[in-house]
Amino acid sequence: MTPNNSPVALTVGGVSADQWLTRSIPALTPAVVAELVDRLPVYASLPSEELRRDIAGVVQRSLRAFARFLRDGVLPTDDDVLALRESATRRAEEGIPLEAVIDAYFLGAQYVLDELTRQTDHRGIASLPALCRLLLAYLRPVTGAVLAGYAQHLSASDSAERGAQQTLLAALLDGKPAAEAADRAGATLPAGYLVLSIDIAAHPDETTPGVDPLIAGRRKLRRLSTELQHVSRGAALTRLSTAGGLVLLPIAGEPDSLPESEWLRLAGDVEKLRRHCGAELTVGVVAAEPSGVAAAARLATEVREVATAVGRGPGVHRLTDVLLEYQLSRPGPARDQLAVLLAPLAERPELLGTLRAYFACDLDRRRTGTDLRVHPNTVDYRLRKITALTGLDTTPGPDMLLLRAALTAQQHHA
């Protein structure tokens, strides 16, 4: 029985219940979200951005659908059900327990029912039991959609396709013939891969007091993984945690002769990934044929580590970007001797920091001072002190290359 056919019409504040509910959505939405945060500990640990956007969006959509149901007797549409399923899938990916997700819908419904009851005038009291029946009728398809979305994630996590892709990735990383594994995954081996070793920095939410860092990290990783499939031309193979890992992006061209446009495209794609996941990404990348993926993965990781050690910062780094630093980072007597040159600075971290900043600022004393937040005269004093302790001239000249090499060796030696 729809509200229009009910023997007693439910009125709230002098208008029909569906009209009151529609008008109240802007106020009810944050109130329901606050109720979930107050009553469900796992929701209290969610990032504020997720509560404001994702959770509030689901609450708002549910309120609109229930108002439509009260007005027309029409249950949630296919679009509504799909949105609820997708939301439940995201909660599953973030590791939120299923019982908490179900509780959220019933707590929200209870809050709205309490508000309707408080606002109902004496003429509508008799129709409250009918309203409760309608609310339960509405929650049936909603609960089904939530269960289906949650189950979809669990099924996808254990799917044969994903298992086959992981088998292919393992074969490539182990240096084993991968053609058979590719067949089982229903894939054709590409001409090559861009092998990415990725360090994923913490999202701000992961260090926000009161926010569950595990949920914030999973949310970050889900966003990155989703966008990764958008930018990849073909199925990307991944082995990622919230801190980083490996990604293999298929390429059609020969790895040894990729045009510069491909590298520029990769840099743009990594920037998209950064924006979507909300965390800085430091990437070492090597192009390789399938048979060379194992060695490329090791090299890409080393390139990333060298780039980080010498202060190159987030972004995409190739071996050509850190050739000198990479070579100087290899163990050997020459590296050890270079590191010894800066041994007199071991107990003076401010001098080592100044030297690093000096090179990062292209030997510009003023920029170095700005970077370190000290006066340029302080930079001059520290550089003179470095010269006095090491015997190496810090003014542009013959000793510059030796100083840079010694600094790189010292960082890796340490």
UniProtKB/TrEMBL annotation:
Family annotation (Gene3D superfamilies): PucR C-terminal helix-turn-helix domain
InterPro entries recorded: CdaR-like_regulators, PucR_C-HTH_dom, PucR_C-HTH_sf, RsbRD_N_dom
Pinpoint the RsbT co-antagonist protein RsbRD N-terminal domain residues: 26-155
| Pfam families xref list | HTH_30, RsbRD_N
Q: Where in the numbering of this chain does the PucR C-terminal helix-turn-helix domain appear?
A: 351-409
| Protein's UniProt name | Helix-turn-helix domain-containing protein
Species of provenance? Cryptosporangium minutisporangium
Organismal lineage: Bacteria, Bacillati, Actinomycetota, Actinomycetes, Cryptosporangiales
